[in-house]
Structures are given as C-alpha cells and as structure tokens.
C-alpha cells in the first residue's frame, strides 16, 4: 500500500512532524511548513498524495479524504497517539471527520513546538484570535522561549478568562460523538475562579424534554440549575433546584475535557452520565450507547474505558458523600 499525505490548515505544522515519525510519508508541504525553512522527515517532492488532510469547517479537527484502507491507517495512527480523538464518517461523502478535543490539541501544541515556537493552548487560542497568537509567538516567544508558560497564561487570560464576568452569559456547546452539536440552555456566570480555571453558571429555561434527563423528574416553571465546570476534568456537574431552592437532583455529564472560549464552553459528550437523587440513590446511565459508539469506531477502547472509570469513580464518591448534591462541594476526578 502506497500512502502519502497532503496536509493543509491550522494543524499542518504539527501533523507534518507527527505522521513521518509513524511511518507515513508526505507528498506536499503547506505554506506554513515551507515558511519554517525546515523540510520534515519523510517528505518527497516526487510523491503523489493518496490521502488529503484539511481543516474541518469549524477547525475543531481535520477532514481525511482518500481510499478507505489508506485513510483508515491515518486515523489509526491518530487514535493510537491521542486518547480523546474522535472519528466519524461524513454523511454523503467518502471522507472521515476527526475531531481534536482538548487533550489532542494540547499534544499537537507540543509537537508543533518542536518545529516553531508555540504557546501552550496554541490551537485553541488560534480559533479565537489567530493574529494575537501569531504576534506573541513571533515577537515575544521566539526571543524568550523560557517565558512560554507566563506568555501563554497571559494571552489566555486576555482572550478568555478576562471576558468571564458575573452576569455575562455563556453557551454550552454539547458535541455528540456522531458530530451533532446541541446547545444547552445558556448560563449566567455567578462565579469565576481563573486560578482554578473554573466557572459556575446559573441556568434556567431548559430546552428539550419535559423531564430531567436521567432523573426522570418533571420540569417545572422557575426551576434552575447550578452548573460547575472546571478545566482538566472528564466530567462536569449540573445540580437542579425548584424555584424556592428545593433540591431536585444532580447530573454528572461525562465528557472530554472542557475547552473554554470567550462566548461558550465546548466538549464532546461521552454518552454515559451519573445521576444522583436527594434520597441518596445514584446510578450510571447510557452505558449501551457508549459501547455501541466504541464498536462503530467513533472512539477507542481506551477512551471508552476512561469514560467508564470516571463514571464509577463519581458513583462511588456520590454514594459515600452525604452532601454529593450540594453546590459548594463539587466532586473532582483525578486525571
């Protein structure tokens, strides 16, 4: 099987370093790679590209187009290297969409940094303000690589955390494994902890069903949720209340690490959830859906196991804690 890649887009520099190290040749270079004055290992100007890798429309990953066997190998190399990568067919096209959630983007940041000076969170911040990222990397980081940590934190604070103020509203971009994007009811920021990379929202006017998912309790006028979202977690929590403060229950959504943007929070939902009732009952839901998505190749067995490990850890903590549903005691998984 002859396989060579053409790679274009915002991930080109990182992927052009990544694939040749895993036995896949390159047929052409993007302008970004050519401008780095470093011809990568595995590049052949005589090769013809059999697989094309380009940005997805939302730049949250890449579109892989080419013969099935060759494209399959490209996807397997990504799945072997990055635990949270998501792969899904593109309806109506002979192509696969590969989403790069938080951990994959971070790993690609590190690979890119071996080629050109690269900030932490480069690929996420570039989706927000590419000119600002480019300026800091070329003007400051190139001259002072030892300041990578502080330069990265300062830019993220400017672009993201500095925009999170009490009373501001955030969307929640809930991405399903099959690629559907659902927007949960917006939340009003009631607390921000930039040093913890955590935000707390109050949400009302719930969309969709007439009962709370998993809890199977009817929704009522005036109900609200307190949603606590932290960086570096495989889950986040909604705690539901009646209008006068009566606890309805808690819902722990299992997902890839949340990515923080100025106007929204984004993650890929991993199907399983943990629900907790005020009387102490707790359970894990939707395990069959997670297994089915793994069998169809959307996620790796490793990511499936991480989701289940997280769910069982939350279940044990919730069952052992009398205040598992309280707002000011968020459970935090290890990672």
Describe this entry's structure for a reader.
The protein is built from nine helices and 15 strands. By secondary structure, the chain is an alpha+beta fold. The protein has three domains: 4-103, no CATH class; 117-159, no CATH class; 163-320, Beta Barrel (FomD barrel-like fold), CATH 2.40.380. A seven-stranded mixed β-barrel has the order 7-8-9-10-11-12-14. Strands 2-1-3-4-6-5 form a six-stranded mixed sheet, with helices on one face. β3 (51-55) and β4 (61-65) form a beta hairpin. α1 packs across α4 and α5 packs across α6. It is globular. The relative contact order is 0.09.
CATH topology of the largest domain: FomD barrel-like fold
Silhouette: globular
Helix count equals 9
C-alpha end-to-end distance: 39 Å
For the sheet with most strands, the description reads: 7 strands, mixed, barrel
Query: How many β-strand runs?
Result: 15
Into which percent range does the helicity of residues fall? 25-40%
What is the CA-atom radius of gyration, in angstroms?
Answer: 21 Å
Proportion of strand residues: 25-35%
By secondary-structure content and strand pairing, the structural class works out as alpha+beta
Number of structural domains: 3
The level-1 CATH class of the largest domain: Mainly Beta
Unreliable runs, pLDDT <50, ≥5 residues?
322-335
**Element-by-element helix/strand order:** EHEHEEHEEHHHHEEEEEEEEEHH
CATH architecture of the largest domain: Beta Barrel
Specify the oligomeric state. single chain
How are the strands ordered across the major sheet? 7-8-9-10-11-12-14
Looking at CATH, the homologous superfamily of the largest domain is FomD-like
Q: Average pLDDT, to the nearest integer?
A: 90
């Amino acid at each position: 099987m002859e396989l060579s890649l053409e790679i274009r887009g915002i991930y080109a520099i990182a992927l052009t370093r990544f694939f040749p190290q895993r036995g896949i040749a390159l047929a052409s270079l993007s302008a970004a790679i050519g401008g780095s004055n470093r011809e990568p290992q595995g590049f052949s100007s005589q090769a013809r590209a059999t697989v094309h890798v380009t940005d997805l429309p939302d730049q949250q990953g890449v579109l892989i187009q080419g013969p099935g066997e060759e494209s399959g190998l490209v996807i397997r190399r990504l799945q072997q290297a990055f635990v949270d990568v998501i792969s899904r067919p593109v309806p109506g096209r002979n192509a696969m969409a590969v989403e790069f959630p938080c951990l994959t983007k971070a790993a690609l940041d590190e690979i890119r940094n071996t080629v050109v000076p690269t900030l932490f969170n480069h690929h996420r911040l570039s989706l927000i303000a590419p000119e600002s990222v480019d300026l800091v990397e070329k003007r400051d980081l190139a001259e002072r690589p030892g300041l990578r940590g502080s330069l990265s934190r300062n830019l993220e604070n400017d672009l993201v955390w500095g925009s999170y103020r009490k009373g501001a509203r955030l969307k929640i971009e809930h991405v399903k494994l099959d690629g559907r994007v659902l927007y949960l009811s917006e939340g009003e920021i009631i607390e921000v902890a930039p040093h913890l990379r955590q935000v707390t929202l109050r949400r009302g006017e719930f969309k969709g069903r007439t009962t709370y998912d998993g809890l199977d309790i009817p929704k009522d006028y005036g109900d609200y949720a307190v949603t606590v979202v932290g960086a570096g977690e495989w889950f986040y929590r909604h705690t539901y209340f009646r209008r006068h403060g009566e606890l309805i229950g808690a819902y722990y959504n299992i997902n890839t690490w949340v990515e923080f943007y100025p106007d929204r929070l984004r993650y890929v939902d991993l199907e399983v959830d943990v629900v907790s009732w005020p009387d102490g009952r707790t359970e894990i839901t939707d395990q069959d859906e997670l297994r089915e998505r793994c069998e169809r190749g959307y996620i790796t067995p490793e990511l499936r196991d991480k989701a289940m490990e997280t769910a069982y850890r939350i279940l044990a903590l919730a069952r052992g804690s009398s205040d598992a549903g309280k707002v000011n005691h968020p459970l935090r998984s290890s990672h």
